[in-house]
Amino acid sequence: MTHPTGSAESGPPFDAELRASLAVVGGTFPPTVTPDLIGFMRQSYASRPLAETMRGRAVAHHETTIEGHRGDPVTVSIFTPIGMTSRRPAIVYAHSGGLMFGDRFNALDASLNWVEKLGAVLISTEYRLAPEFADPYAREDMYATLDWAAQNAERVGIDRRRLLVAGASSGGGLAAGLALAARDRDGPAIRGQLLSYPMLDDRGIAPSTQQFDGVGVWDRVSNETGWQAYLQDAYRTDAVSPYAAPARAEDLRGLPPAFLDVGDCEIFRDEVVAYANGLWAAGVNAELHVWPGAFHACDIFAPHTAMAKAMLHTRFSWVQRMLAD
User: Fold this and answer.
1) Domains in the chain, please, with CATH?
2) How far is the C-alpha of 23 from the C-alpha of 292, rounded, in Å?
3) Average pLDDT in the chain
4) Between vectors from CA 141 to CA 140 and to CA 142, what angle results, nearest 5°?
5) Cβ pair 189, 161 in contact under 8 A
């Protein structure tokens, strides 16, 4: 087991302010998630009531049902600026939760700033979760959302020229897979992909995967639990699609510009850096931030800290630039 102070055998030390937050985080999100904890996580990681999050926001919300994978009904939430009269840029968002838990309202406080302050339309999907729904359900539910947004742009008030995909953690992996699939299927044009500490590689080969066992948020065992639940018999075999695990993609050419960020005190650090390197090598613009002392999803679990505020501000600035007309 590693220790939050860091040692020769462990990863870098946690930021002092963030380290103090970990004791509180562990009560709702244990560092190690095993299959027997999936039910608990679906309760503890559930979003607060939407009315509380929306209170005081100049944002309208409505839901619709689209055809997801295999034509099954999937619920999406659409958030728009109140008083919107012209076509607006749009962000198709995939929530976090290790592919096993979470909902379309996760981390909504930060996402609603794109709506309220930038005038964007936010589309968040209730994609189906593993292990009940294995690959390709989550990624195809998300692709169906992207396709629906493009096809219904006029009705929803979306400017198809300014369409982003975004996600955090497992949702960041789904967003990266969306960008790959849209390129390969000649799908909707995507202006940019926002990948917040994305879950990209089921193989567990990056050195950082081994550095944070039993500490922080989302350790090696948690990651194995999530990937096994989602990929099932295909887990760590050549049958895994790069749309499910984008780190497996052999050709990153022609992808939209990307923003990637990750903490240096989390298991995803090295696979995110490797993905950014792959994008650059393929001639794709990519902005990469590795936050010193940051644990996984600290912006969600400790938004009051200086590090989390810096992360959120930097992401917001990139989105603002990407959505500019």
Assistant:
1) 16-323 (3.40.50.1820)
2) 19
3) 95
4) 85
5) yes
